[in-house]
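Feature request disguised as a bug: please show the residue count (438) next to Carbohydrate ABC transporter substrate-binding protein, CUT1 family in the output. Example input:
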Amino acid sequence: MKTNKLFFALLIAVLLISVAASIVAAAEPVEITYSYWGTPDEAASVQAVADRFNAEHPEIVVKVMAIPNEEYVTKLNTMATANELPDCGIMNEAGVLDFAEKGLLADVSDMYAGADSMPLDSITFKKDGKPVAYSAANEILILYYNTDMFDAAGLPYPSATEPMTWDEFVATAKKLTLDKNGKNADDPEFDAENIVQYGAVVDNWTWQLEVWALSNGGSWFNADGTEVTINSPEAIESIQKVADLYLVDKVMPYNAGLEDNGIQRSIVSGTVAMATGGTWNVGTSLPGSVKYSVAPLPVMKKEVTICTGGPQVIFSQSKHQAEAMEFIKWYTKEENSWDNLIATGIWMPILEKYYTDEALTKKWIDNPNFPKYEDYKAAVVDYAMNYAVSTSWYYTPHTNEFIEYLRSILGPVWDGTQTAEEAINGGYDYLSSILAGE
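Example output, currently without the count:
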């Protein structure tokens, strides 16, 4: 009898120890890694955001893995080969579908299940129709203009609700292009060799050129991203029209298209009256620098703008995809980036409700960091809802290599050495081979 009592006592003790161990184990937080490109200082800022999440979610610990920007994709590819990818991280827009094609990204279709609002469809990266990433912010291309230059020329401001046709845009740019004697480009005595103020800059940083193919009734790829269509007459003509602003119309300064600095070398410099650029410039380049406002892009044939935004992804190799998804959803919430990014004009919200609910729209843009409320709402908020479409990297792989090669063959177009037709037709086969992954 004593033996039985001792046995049962020992058994109960073992069971109690086992339960206690299970409780302790269950209480241990899940550790996930978030990869980010940038300097140690930037990584410290991201870690500070992660620390906020960790404090609010004691069941999860997020650790930031900082990788230099120039090494980022190479490092991730090496880690993927070793099956050692982080749980989640930031990606370059043009690299998302490449990773998805290799099966390296998790399906995030359920990330917003039950939410009161979804991210805009135009900033949702899809593979075989399923979301594999959402942009952390929305950005569209718009037209900026210097109000003082329009006032000096006695011209009405571009409409925020009725975009100019391309011909109207060129005609207005000619009136705003001045030589050293104050004569504009419409004057027979205009001195095109001594221009002191240009009427326009259409940014020829390569990925931004896609919008003009779409506006002109063409495209760079077919609808499902399986064929290169940049050699269509409409797409070729759109590139030539941009080049002719410098070559023929004499309203735009020459630019080789090798740097992402369109607004800085135009509106910010105070030497150009109108310029196309991304909405992020409201917060990064323009505060207090010049009197300006915004309008929709001019229209070749069709009203359209393109959108983009840095994606946050969950890697399929993660053993903690649910926790990684919880962190990414939290990290991209508008309230967590409101003061430094959204309210300053650097980021636009991703959730549809900020574009359709007037109270939320006012909370977002009715502040001194933005141009006039009515202009920005019509030209940006409403336009993003009604006319914004995804850039090709949201549905097509290999766009990074495609854009880099396209940039190289367009150089002679900008200086007039080749026509757009010659450049595109000469490079078409190689552009098609890039899409095919050859």
